[in-house]
Design brief:
Radius of gyration of chain A: 22 Å
Strand order of the largest sheet of chain A: 1-3-2-8-10-9-14-15-13-11-12
CATH class of the largest domain in chain A: Alpha Beta
Distance between the termini of chain A: 42 Å
Oligomer: homodimer
CATH topology of the largest domain in chain A: Amidase signature (AS) enzymes
Structural class of chain A: alpha/beta
CATH superfamily of the largest domain in chain A: Amidase signature (AS) domain
Chain lengths: 524, 524
């Protein structure tokens, strides 16, 4: 990374920002240090039960945060069976507890959220109808979204000097108009281009299943927060897997839609704008319930976002009736450069077997598609087109050092690779070839979806995730892709999938969930 | 242009190709040389009446080619009131006559067309239903589309060595499956990046209204052919105005849809593929009837082209009910660097006045949008990203010289400009700014469409068109845009719109049609 004279007080600046952000947690919601002193990145503790055992949440608050998805909560609030102020209070409290366990937050907006929740309740009482399709629902936002009056430092110390946002991100405006309430913003990695949500302002987000493991990134704050049930629905971005990696690490679900459906404007970019890369960043929801993702997508797209953001496709939401015929799945197994760890191999095998047993078709796609590894290197060349290295300049501006995981977040094959315009033409031709081949196999082949791993392993130890070759293909193709939880690692059951000749990181045995990435051509 | 040792026989090669192509006109359809010897690019003759006066067409053939649009012809053929073989014969004969007047064709496919027409007739007779929504309809294609078994030299002498196409362009396949019959391919400029449809194989296409004027380009063969009624519906491409410039020069209509709706795959590109330019080439129809454009768009999009071409948006065709409320138009007048010639100024004024009288709203957009001239220079930078100058290498391969109009087809401001990757980021930021401003004024401003000139003048003399600043903005924005005929130049009436201080090319007084470019955000 670039060398530059450090600014003497960057640590002070970061500390001051961090402390003022977290000072917004009410003192009543602070856990005893006897507990929090245990929650370090080396302990291997599972903290998922802390919200239930710490005694801070009432039975009703536990029920609100554990028993419903977002769709159900909106229904309950819209019909007056629950008050938004109670729902928002419950999630604020639980988010505060999550923060003290796994360090998943950046900006805390509890006061504004509770005020807005009261507005929602008053509106319902006065008007006899809900504010909108997200009436009173607390939603968490990755730090890169702008909320008027709140900072979006996205983990760069030099951005602390920037004033609070003067306007909302477009999608934030749409969600707010639909009745959503924003209670927290969540942590992410410095540069947003690594899978460890760690930066020099807010520190590192830990995996609530095992604090020694990564929560994933770049939307790792959401992954950890939702796993702790401090939020029921989060808003993330994704350019290489940023909304899917935290989901597969933390055992939640997420979807990366095709680009230009959810308005991207109005947020804070981690690098230079104007990239000629054909890979566009995408906004999508994360949570626990697939119908919640439909609620999110339908709400945003029904707001006609192309009127608000000139880069959104003016294409309405369309409902699709579930197929009554058996589905046709492609099954894409391991990439030889990143062989599957036993729990993932078992998850893939079990899922395929269950689907076949249920009458669905399963077509093996091994060796008929372009190499995932080569495709990922191609994608990363598109990510390296900025010769001015803007993220590094943002770091140099404060003197802060790069976070450790950045060292392993790129391909050794690309060390020293410098982009140039003429090669960019060739890269586009290569990408077109990859897309054409996938289209031939999947679309012309009549497949409804491809089932594949989201990663070769369950959540790895901090700073060891490496390059996301299983997720970035969805971005290179610009096809929708999602993560669905299908089970837990179990050493006994996984053993038969252990190819002894292969490397198997022991940390994985602590890991809890195996995930599959799900790709389908968009019909929405 | 690059210098290279000429290949001794490029002229022979071109002549041989040209003669073999035109030898496919049946001898019965050849005009006497007493006529054709007059049809030169310097005579100023109007040849629109030649098909009617030359005696080659029967009364029925004149009626078929003059009295109906494509929608009506399909209806008549689908119900057995006309035979496809008669319709196709009429258009083949008329296209042959047009060729001899204005040199608008490249590949002649009369035999194949008549055979296919008989198949259509037989199908209808046997099955009692039409083959598809374009049953039996003759359609003309720009030379850059591939038709199996036919060459697509696109005016490069070096491409004569290429074998005939082994497959159809995707859109050609779709149209064929819908029942269309292809009778001719049409002329275009060497490189496809100038407004004079002129190349060293097939020569120059002339404007049938006045042979001394350009037919426009790059789809000028279509413009001239359709003006001569040698085709009722043509298929064109457009990246800077290529489907609109011939329409405004020849007095027909056309539409450039948004990109990635009509499948672009399977054709012959005039330059390097893999461009990182955000301006994508677009396919659209040209003809005389707006409902024919709907027929074309609906037919292609209803064939679910995203299954056939991986770059097509998977968005179905949607019908829109005509608005019952007054429409809100923006009126964009002259760009100071290219002031309007009197007939265009009058056409714009008259149209705006008529629309206002009819109760529609008209908002003047002068000085609220980014400069068209500056925007066009930006667009042309995107067209200059290929430092390897592929079109020049295609020319060098045969030793053919560049056509004269290429000298005036670029901006003097860009002489010596060399693209580089880092500037490309800045260009994208500039484009984003232009799009944002247009979106703000037009979309957020609640306008339904913008009315503006398609060019500062009526069709100019050969090789003088220059840069297409009024059309390329539609490509830079990726908004749909079209050309609608609203009247003729009339010296007497135009005089009051003549600002004496401005340059007014006298050739224009011979010109016949003033066109308006029509932009509307796509809702299809």
């Amino acid at each position: 990374m670039d060398s530059a004279p450090p600014i003497a007080d960057w640590q002070e600046l970061a500390k001051s920002k961090r402390e003022s952000a977290f000072a917004r947690i009410p003192t009543d919601w602070i856990l005893p240090t006897t507990l929090t002193s245990q929650y370090t990145e080396t302990t291997g503790l599972n903290v998922l039960d802390v919200p239930r055992t710490c005694g801070l949440l009432t039975e009703q608050e536990l029920a609100i945060t554990e028993d419903h998805d977002a769709t159900a909560l909106v229904e309950l609030m819209s019909t007056g069976k629950l008050k938004s102020v109670d729902v928002v209070t419950a999630f604020c409290k639980r988010a505060a507890i999550a923060q003290q366990c796994v360090n998943c937050l950046t900006e805390i907006m509890f006061d504004q959220a509770l005020a807005r929740a009261r507005e929602c309740d008053n509106y319902l009482e006065k008007e006899g109808k809900p504010l909108g399709p997200l009436h009173g629902l607390p939603i968490s936002l990755k730090d890169s979204f702008n909320v008027k009056g709140t900072q979006a430092t996205i983990g760069y110390v030099s951005f602390i000097a920037r004033p609070p946002a003067a306007t909302n991100s477009t999608v934030v405006d749409i969600l707010a108009n639909a009745g959503a309430v924003f209670h927290v913003k969540t942590n992410l990695p410095q540069t947003m281009m690594t899978a460890d949500s760690h930066n020099n302002i807010f520190g590192r987000t830990l995996n609530p299943h095992n604090l020694s493991l990564t929560s994933g990134g770049s939307t790792g704050g959401e992954g950890a927060l939702i796993a702790m049930r401090g939020s029921v629905l989060g808003v993330a971005t994704d350019i290489a897997g940023s909304n899917r990696i935290p989901a597969l690490c933390c055992g939640i679900s997420s979807i990366k839609p095709t680009a230009s459906r959810i308005p991207f404007s109005g947020g804070v970019p981690p690098g230079r704008i104007g990239s000629p890369s054909p890979i566009l960043p995408v906004i999508g929801p994360c949570g626990r319930s697939i119908r919640d993702f439909e609620l999110f997508m339908r709400t945003v797209i029904s707001a006609d976002p192309s009127n608000l953001d000139e880069n959104v496709l003016p294409v309405p939401w369309r409902s699709i009736n579930p197929s009554t015929k058996p589905l046709r799945f492609g099954l894409l197994r391991a990439c030889s450069q990143r062989p599957l760890h036993p729990p993932i191999a078992r998850a893939l095998h079990t899922t395929a077997t269950l689907l076949k047993t249920a009458g669905h078709h399963m077509t093996l796609l091994d060796n008929v598609l372009p190499s995932l590894y080569t495709s990922a290197i191609l994608a990363y060349k598109f990510f390296l087109l900025d010769s001015s290295h803007t993220p590094a300049s943002y770091m140099r501006a404060s003197g802060e050092p790069p976070i450790p995981s950045l060292a392993g977040a790129s391909f050794p094959e690309l060390d020293g690779w410098e982009p140039n315009l003429q090669e960019l033409w060739d890269l586009n031709v290569q990408r077109a070839g990859v897309l054409k081949k996938w289209h031939h196999v999947v679309v012309k082949g009549g497949l409804d979806a491809v089932i594949m791993p989201g990663y070769q392993a369950t959540a790895p130890r901090h700073d060891t995730y490496g390059v996301p070759i299983y997720t970035v293909i969805g971005n290179l193709l610009n096809w929708p892709a999602g993560i669905i939880s299908v089970g837990h690692a179990e050493e006994e059951k996984d053993r038969e999938f252990w190819n002894k000749g292969e490397d198997y990181e022991p940390a994985c045995k602590f890991c809890v969930l195996c995930m599959l990435s799900f790709s389908q051509r968009v019909k929405i």
